[in-house]
Amino acid sequence: MSDAPYLLEELQLSGFRAYLVPKTFDFASKRCLAVFAPNASGKSSIIDALEFMFSSDGTLERLGLRTIHNQAGVVALVHNLAAEKNIESFVLMRFKRGTLKSEALRNASGATRERPIEVAAVNACFTVNPIIRGHALRGFVEEQTAEQRYEAVARWLQLGPLVDIQRNLRALRQRVKAAAEDQSSLTRVDTQTARKTSNAVTAWDNVAVMTHANAILRLLDETLSMSSLDRADPVFITVQDRARAEELNLGLEGLRQIRRAAVNIFELEHSGERGESLATGILPQLEDAVGSYAKARETEALERTAAANSIFDELWKAAEPLFAEGTPVPDTCPICSTPITASAAGSAQVVRQHLATHRAELAAYAKAKKDLNAASSTVDRLRARLIAAIQTLQSLLSEAYADPEENLLAYLTALEAWNAGDLPEAEPLKEFLDKLIKALDVSIVEIEERQGENTYRKALNKIEELIELLDERELAVRTLDELGKLSTELTAQASFISGEIRKKVQALLDTLQTPLNDIYSKIQGAGATAIRLELPSEDDTNQQRLNLVVDFAANREGVQPSGYLSDSQIHSLALALRLAAIKRFNTAAPIIALDDIVTSYDADHRRAIAGLLATDFTDSQLIITTHDERFFIYLKDQLGDRNWHFTRIIRLDKDFGPRFVDHRVSEAMIESRWHEGESAANEMRQAEEEWLLQVCRDFGVDARIRTAERAHSYERGELADALAAFLRGKGLTPPMVPGVNNRFLTSLQVGAVENFGSHFQDGPYGDGSKGDEQARWAEFKLFREAFACHKCGKRRFKRPKELNKPVCSKEGCEAQFEFVAPAPPVTLGVSGDAAVKAETVTELLQ
Amino acid sequence: MDDETVPMTFLAELGRALNAREGVDPELASLLSQHLLTATPEEDCVGQTLRAITNLAAKRVAPKKETDE
């Protein structure tokens, strides 16, 4: 891997921002570029191309990705006529690193716009952003907070992860502190306390909860009182013992349950006033049901006899409509045809009565039969219920008492065997149940009078709940206390870590401080107050900060620059800090782009900055754009032209792009195009215009004064006309170019070249080939050779006003210009179309 | 960039220096080293460390369980 730094060798903009027609900046021979241009003529687009190419998301900071938040979005990257003119929108860069070369093209349109790998490699060498825009400089000093400034500078120093650690530690400290102060676990205990004590105690209070617990115990035993809510408390142990004993005895609820079961079978309720007794329960209901059943059987037997002739029922039912009231009565019997008057009844009226009587007898029997069935069902249902009730009582009594009750068992056996007739003898059972209920009533009253609904089991459960709440609360208190200790310890450890990071950042800042002040003093003058970069300790209210401070006066030491420095001083401070950081840390890619950085300065400061760039950044590759012509002139004066190319944008053509006054196209650029298999037509055309302009200037040709709209720009045809007229006037006839069909020069004068498409070709609107371009370029170079000094071979001339003809501009030569016969043309695969045709330039021009 | 400015090296040394401090809580220092003192922390490293610290506090205050001898 080469240790040489990355440098930009070529930059091309096509359909990008202000540049519609592809524009190439060649840095191969001169690595630095300064562009002067009025506002809004496309100079910042050059810096935009750099920012776009190196950006991670393929946009500019001021455009953003979407057309929201007052940003124009990536759509604004593309020239508005690019699609209409079918011109691709991209930025192309060629880099060199020692002898290694690389190329990267990034499309400005489309959704992806991915950053090429080659650019990512260069970008990785930029510790500090190499692009400085004048309008953003003030913000670093004045608008950014000390915290933002710290983060920005720390990231310049490649210490971004350390900044993240400081931020994370700070966030962690805040969250642990918040956790240590979080009372929600105690609030939950309070809520549960209120619920468990039925709001007797609404928030946990040891004394109040203890009082509540002892009040529960006193309902059971006045002598019981715990001294602490502790499972080891002697009273708690006593309550546990009594609860266990209580569980072994029949409790209040158990007695009530047995009583409910007994009453369900039989209870003799005594009326207090008249001494009458009323039996209730399933047993009396069954006895009544059995009685009702016996009566129903008797009734059914009687009615069955009365309805013995029920076999005629169908006959009577069929005859009833024939003898119904209001219907025509038949004269004869419908069955035997005996006249009605001759029958036993003797008349229809008697027949009608006979039918009604027998039909009524049958209805009574049906009702008696239905009643009998219902009574039978009632007996069966009550018998089943009684058996179940007796079994339930038997079960409860078995649990409470060791020996089963004989009367209960005997009746149950008899009832299960009973089928019909009288019920088994129930008096012993009734007497037993009556005695049982009375005994139970006595026991229940006794317990109710003694402890009411309270039991030791209930009391024990409640106290255990309170003890669990106490345990939970104490755990929460201990946890919060431990978190508090950890929070304190975390603060100490975070302070140590942050302090070590601060030391490291400060150590690197110290390496920056001297160059910073060197640059600052070169801009502001030797008497400029030194700037200190200070990192105050991190505290609870502020995260890590970077203070830029100055000792402004004896009574104003360590003050903020924004309060004491002038506008230009603040600007200089920010510029000095950025330049110092770039120079210190971007050594692997010393490319610096400066966009309009001198807006705040007077003439002396502009000169100082130009001098600074000339002396301190000789190893850097500077690309400068400015709308300040005086600064541009200072740069030319101080930087010289060995490594610098200076150019001006003279106007912005909406359907072309920025027009540069003299950006020279090099031979290498054209060769490079062909080497890449691409057309060099644009470069060739530009080279030819550049040459024409230079010759016209050197020769001092007369040209028509342009209109105000295009005061500084001459068309190619105008220059060719002026040159041809000058040569004719001076009697200078360009020599012939043997073997060359020089349509190029003809078209120069008539302006036809400007109507060409993208390629050179013999037919003005045909497609040119690489061979055509090479042939045309060879023709041009051959023709250009005729304009070299016949004595020393140099190509620059001058014509002071007192001279009629141009003379060589080389000091000591100054030979008067005359045409040199060109050497034979170099064959570069000239196509058959470029047919040999001997014509002189003069002939062509005429 | 030289080694001095490589955060990984610096962070490793910082972690050792933190643990070597007198009276430092080693368990807490270990948690910070594990979760935060790294050049490539987890996205939720702060939340993870907070939970780890909360668990540490809970472990320290939990009643000691009786173990069978």
Number of strands of chain B: 0
Q: Provide the gyration radius of chain B in Å.
A: 16 Å
Instruction: Identify the most extensive interface between protein chains.
Output: A-B, 32 and 32 residues
What structural category characterises the helix and strand content of chain B?
mainly alpha
Tally of contiguous helical segments of chain A = 25
Termini distance of chain A? 60 Å
Oligomer: heterodimer
Please provide the count of β strands of chain A. 16
H/I helix tally of chain B: 3
Describe this structure in words.
The complex is a heterodimer of chains A (846) and B (69). Chain A has 846 residues and is α/β, with parallel strands linked by helices. Among the domains of chain A are: 1-126 and 586-663, Rossmann fold (3-Layer(aba) Sandwich); 253-315 and 347-451, no CATH class; 681-786 and 821-845, no CATH class. Helices cover 50% and strands 10% of the residues of chain A. Chain A has a six-stranded mixed sheet with strand order 6-11-12-3-13-14, sandwiched between helices. A four-stranded antiparallel sheet of chain A has the order 2-1-4-5, with helices on one face. A two-stranded antiparallel ribbon of chain A has the order 7-8. In chain A, a hairpin with an 8-residue loop joins strand 15 (797-798) and strand 16. In chain A, helix 5 runs antiparallel to helix 15. Chain A starts with 5 loop residues before the first strand and ends with a helix. Residues 751-767 and 825-846 of chain A have low confidence and may be disordered. In chain B, 25% of the residues are buried. In chain B, 58% of the residues lie in helices and 0% in strands. Chain B has three helices and no strands. Chain B is an all-alpha fold. Chain B has a domain at 25-60. Residues 1-5 of chain B have low confidence and may be disordered.
Secondary structure: elements and pairs:
The complex is a heterodimer of chains A (846) and B (69).
Chain A (H helix, E strand, L loop, with lengths): L5 E9 L8 E4 L5 E5 L7 H11 L35 E8 L2 E8 L9 H7 L7 E3 H10 L2 H11 L3 H21 L3 H13 L9 H13 L15 H15 L3 H14 L1 E4 L6 E4 L1 H25 L6 H7 L28 H53 L5 H12 L9 H25 L4 H69 L6 E4 L12 E4 L10 H4 L2 H19 L5 E5 L7 H14 L4 E6 L2 H11 L4 E10 L3 E4 L6 H9 L5 H19 L16 H14 L13 H8 L19 H16 L11 E2 L8 E2 L32 H5 L1
Parallel strand pairs in A: 3-12, 3-13, 6-11, 11-12
Antiparallel strand pairs in A: 1-2, 1-4, 4-5, 7-8, 9-10, 13-14, 15-16
Helix pairs in contact in A: 3-17, 4-5, 5-15, 6-15, 7-15, 8-15, 9-12, 9-14, 10-12, 11-12, 12-13, 15-17, 15-18, 18-19, 21-22, 21-24, 22-23
Chain B lengths: L6 H13 L6 H10 L9 H17 L8
Helix pairs in contact in B: 1-2, 2-3
